[in-house]
Amino acid sequence: MIGAIMATWLSLDAMSQTANAESVYVYEYGKGSRLITDVPRSDAGYRLIKVYRIDGFESTRSSASRSLRTIKSSYDSLIVEQASLHGVDSALVKAMIQVESSFNPIAISHKGAKGLMQLMPDTARRYGVTDRGDPHQNLDGGVRYLKDLLTMFSQNVRLAVAAYNAGENAVIRYSGVPPYDETQNYVKTVLALHELYANRN
Q: Going by C-beta distance under 8 Å and a sequence separation of 6 or more, which residues neighbour residue 154?
């Protein structure tokens, strides 16, 4: 969601530091800068914001890097239902949920985004979502928001995904994916997962 640190949001490069880590640490440092790493650190000036367990990645013995993998979740049928209802690619919705919340319906970011699609309070109100922790309501609001972003950016998936993370105004201001590490990593990971899920169908 806009401005939120998401549950499984990582670049593939960031995952290359260790082969067996199962957690990701989000630190804040400097003037609002953030570091996402699978290596805990105790440096002065780094404040730990959140620790996430990563269930969407797996290591390989042949390489120190990690690769994205698909997940079968208990929300698959609901994802397909809502995506079909609103005319959005279910593979894209599932990829975003994996990155946003790792399929945890009660996940909450440090900025207050909540649920499967990490809806912020303002976005929830815009789409009539009264209980962001309810998977059906959360998906309905999140998918409708994604559909509106796809319409706004002429079905450009890359820009719509960037706008879901950084906000539509940021994408308009930069005429593309904003140069934020958070958003760049988010877009890269969502698009990689989208391709994996799409190829399974």
A: none
Q: 53 pairs with which residues across the strands?
A: 23
Q: Is the pLDDT of residue 27 over 80?
A: no
- The first and second tokens of residue 125, run together, are 């109100």
Beta bridge partners of 29: 33
Residues 123, 37, single domain; the answer is: no
119, 113 in Cβ contact below 8 A?
A: yes
**CA–CA gap between residue 164 and residue 182 (Å, rounded):** 12
Residue 59 has pLDDT above 60, yes or no: no
Burial profile 105-120: b = 16 or more Cβ within 10 angstroms, e = fewer:
bebbbeeebbbbbbbb
Q: At 26, is the secondary structure helix, strand, or coil?
A: strand
Which candidate, 200, 79, 176, 71, places its Cα nearest to that of 163?
176
CA nearest neighbour of 19 among 47, 57, 50 = 57
Q: Quick check: is 100 catalytic?
A: yes
Percent of the chain at pLDDT exceeding 70: 73
pLDDT digits (tens, 9 = 90+) for 61-109: 222 233 567 888 899 999 999 999 999 999 999 999 999 998 999 999 8
Q: Which residue has the tokens 């930069």?
A: 174
57: containing domain: 14-68
- Among the options 28, 100, 168, 182, which is catalytic? 100
In this structure, are 166 and 98 located in the same domain? yes
pTM: 0.70
**Tally of domains within the chain:** 2
